[in-house]
Amino acid sequence: MKAYILTLIGLLCVSLGWAQGKLQRIDNFMVKENLTANGKVAIIATDSLDQALETINGTFKFSINGFEQNLAFHSGIAVAADPIDGSTFAYFKHKNQENSTGKLYFLYKSDSKITPIKINGLLLLIIPAIILLIAYAFKRLMSTFIVLAIIYGYFSFSKGLSLGHLFESATQILKSFF
Q1: How many CB atoms lie within 10 A of CB 33?
Q2: How do 67-73 and 77-79 pair as beta strands?
Q3: Phi, psi of 68, rounded to the nearest 5 degrees
Q4: Which of 8, 92, 6 is nearest to 43 (CA)?
Q5: Model confidence pLDDT, tens digit, residues 75-97
Q6: For burial by CB atoms within 10 Å, which of 5, 11, 53, 97 has the most?
Q7: Mapping DSSP to helix (H, G, I), strand (E, B) and coil, where does residue 137 land?
Q8: Cα distance between residue 125 and residue 102, in whole Å
Q9: What pLDDT is attached to residue 135?
Q10: How many angstroms separate the CA atoms of 23 and 83, rounded?
Q11: What is the pTM of this model?
């Protein structure tokens, strides 16, 4: 009986030591408005499914827009020290020993509320590429339109069609729609 009790106490001590020595690490996080609505944002430690990790306690280094800050986490939540004055972009980065996690947010500040909007970094590459593609297509379309307009103008005016007749014909077509 005494051996069973000693074994049980030994296992209990080992399990308590393992639980206390468990590595505290943040692999993922999200940014929310602080509950007190004082113009500050809260960083919440989460797992891969964005569920809050309430077991995270301690001080962790974060980089916010390139400025390193030590954030004190209590029950998985830390509050950034500096308040947000106006709408801004903010890049939050945390580096573990194995990897680093960085997220870009647009912090929209209204009268008394901050709304963090997560921005996918891939969009910052895709949107300008689409704009350049549209501009290139428009440039090609414009040059084609100008060449066709010159050809149309040459054939129309060389055969006696005046600009006044062209506008009159266009207004007649528009009047027929109404």
Answers
A1: 18
A2: unpaired
A3: -80, 135
A4: 92
A5: 999 998 888 888 888 899 998 88
A6: 53
A7: helix
A8: 17
A9: 86
A10: 31
A11: 0.62
Residue 29: the pLDDT is: 92
Q: Which residues contact 50 (CB under 8 A, 6 or more apart)?
A: 28, 30
d(CA 92, CA 29): 9
Helix (H, G, I), strand (E, B) or coil at 1: coil
C-alpha–C-alpha distance, residues 51 and 62, integer Å = 20
pLDDT tens-place string over residues 120-172: 877 777 888 898 888 888 888 888 888 878 877 777 666 666 666 666 667 77
User: From CA 114, how far away is CA 87, in angstroms rounded?
Assistant: 8
CB proximity list for 31: less than 8 A, separation 6 or greater:
41, 42, 43, 44, 90, 92, 103, 105, 107, 116, 118
The amino acid at residue 98 is E
